[in-house]
Amino acid sequence: MTPKKTIGFIGLGSLGEGLCHSLVKAGYPVRVNDLNKALAQRLLEAGAQWAGSTADVCQGADVVITVLPSPAVSRQVVEGPGGVFEHLRPGGTWIEMSTTDMEDLLRLSEVARGKGIHVLECPVTGGVHLANSGEITVLVGGDETTFKGVEDILGTMGGEIIYLGKMGNASVVKVVTNMLAFIHLIAAGEAMMLPAKYGVDPDATYRAIRASSGNSFVHETESKLVLSGSYNVKFTMDLACKDLGLVNGIAEKLGVPLELGSMAQQIFRRARGLMGGNAQSPEVVRMIENACGLELRAPGYPTELVAEPGTSR
After folding, report:
1. Please, are residues 128 and 137 in contact by the beta-carbon 8 Å criterion?
2. Which of 54, 91, 132, 245 could tie 18 with a disulfide, CB 3.0–4.6 Å?
3. pLDDT digits (tens, 9 = 90+) for 142-160
4. CATH, residue 97
């Protein structure tokens, strides 16, 4: 039996911690690092090892995975002084699972190749709750041979693994999926508010939309968090605005008119200005609630999302 690859994992936020936990549960030797060691508690209890620095993360690692909040942070962690590129051995693989800037990622991948390091971009989609269950969808861009070499690792963290071709392809598709999710979220809020203002029970409206041609994955999931009043999807306004900035930036360079995408960006910027960058992304619906003087609420809806078997998207 081939021994499992040794993995270094950097970035233990809501998404990263869940992805990493699947690897630890599956018996991979994993060394973890984050600015906040408290985020590693569940992983350490499950058998992961704490690494006090990026150098420690890379020590003996076959693969280093990063799941970080912004292109600037990712760039610093991999390319900065004491970063991954200094300490990951030649022949090792860096897997970038952050949603990041495509052009910067292409540049970093060339720097890595010059050091003999293989690179894959593997952003994920489907929601943080699916990361915790190992059912999240993984989008893969990069060399196919490199992908085949770590396919077992990706399959442990995710449900559906979609190979999209050359480096950069996964980044483009990822930001498009996020753009659609944010557009759907705005639309779902408006769609539920109109009947509510007329006097229709929001629970009945939710069920009717779910059974209709206007249904979406976002309505099935995030609308529940609006109706419960929690809004807590574990994804902030800052992250939503970052992702909408990335997709609109790519569209500008390619000359693709994203009318709904640019409108969604402006709406989320306004929501962030009103509620702060740490507000949850579904709180964008609060703006129409405030405008109409009516909260969209119904009993029996969950305050957090939990994956159900077979829900990978």
Report:
1. no
2. 132
3. 999 999 999 999 999 999 9
4. 3.40.50.720
